[in-house]
């Protein structure tokens, strides 16, 4: 499935892993977030994808905030 180029893009490098956060436009012209994890295993690069559609962003953000709050409490 081909999509238009990213409307917005940023990345996070974390050792052997790189995370890409791309806002793209779906076929219906609505934006969605595509999160890609790229992991280097020797000479091979493995990629995993997660798509978060516009209608799910609020719930996704709330769940992520809940997880981050929990992890923050665990580190104190």
From TrEMBL:
One of its GO terms (molecular function) is purine-rich negative regulatory element binding. It holds the Pfam family DUF3276. It comes from the Bacteria. SMART domains: PUR. InterPro entries: PUR-bd_fam. Keywords: DNA-binding. Belongs to the PUR DNA-binding protein family. This is DNA-binding protein.
């Amino acid at each position: 499935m081909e999509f238009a180029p990213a409307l917005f893009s940023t990345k996070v490098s974390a050792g052997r892993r790189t995370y890409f956060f791309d806002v793209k436009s779906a076929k219906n012209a609505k934006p969605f977030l595509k999160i890609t994890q790229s992991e280097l295993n020797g000479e091979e690069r493995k990629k995993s994808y997660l798509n978060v559609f516009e209608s799910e962003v609020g719930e996704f953000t709330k769940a992520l905030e809940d997880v981050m709050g929990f992890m923050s409490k665990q580190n104190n």
